[in-house]
UniProtKB/TrEMBL annotation:
This is Translesion error-prone DNA polymerase V autoproteolytic subunit. Pfam families: Peptidase_S24. Residues 6-116 form the Peptidase S24/S26A/S26B/S26C domain. Keywords: Autocatalytic cleavage, DNA damage, DNA repair, Hydrolase, SOS response. InterPro entries: LexA-like, LexA/Signal_pep-like_sf, LexA_repressor, Peptidase_S24_LexA, Peptidase_S24_S26A/B/C.
């Protein structure tokens, strides 16, 4: 008589759908040495999916371009906004129509600190 092993457990239908584990860090971080995380305060970027309490991954190695969401320092205050450059002029634009654009005035400094690569929104459970 031949002996054949037969599984005694219940077969899982999920076995057909085994996928690689999701690694959020792999998705957000291209340059580990130049990526920083900031918690957002306020709702000026809500229509871009960045809400009060969101955490943004900011990469300083990415060259900022017009249309990117950036972390910028305006004088001494940090802000997250869309970067718009046109004819050598810089403008920071919110993703909430109740906020005005930030256009540098004489003597005001705007430094683009890094490009936002992604956002993590944590919901209270």
């Amino acid at each position: 008589m031949a002996r054949v092993a037969v599984p005694a457990g219940f077969p899982s239908p999920a076995d057909d759908f085994v996928v690689e584990r999701l690694d959020v860090m792999k998705l957000l971080v291209r340059h580990p040495q130049s990526t920083f995380y900031w918690r957002v305060k306020g709702d000026s970027m809500r229509e871009a999916g960045i809400h009060d309490g969101s955490i943004v991954a900011v990469d300083r190695a990415v060259r900022p371009r017009s249309g990117h969401v950036v972390l910028a320092v305006v004088d001494t205050e940090c802000t997250v906004k869309y970067l718009h450059e046109r004819a050598g002029r810089v403008r920071l634009r919110a993703a909430n129509p109740t906020y005005p654009d930030i256009v540098p005035r004489d003597g005001q400094t705007i430094e683009v600190w890094g490009v936002v690569r992604g956002v993590v929104q944590i919901f209270a459970v």
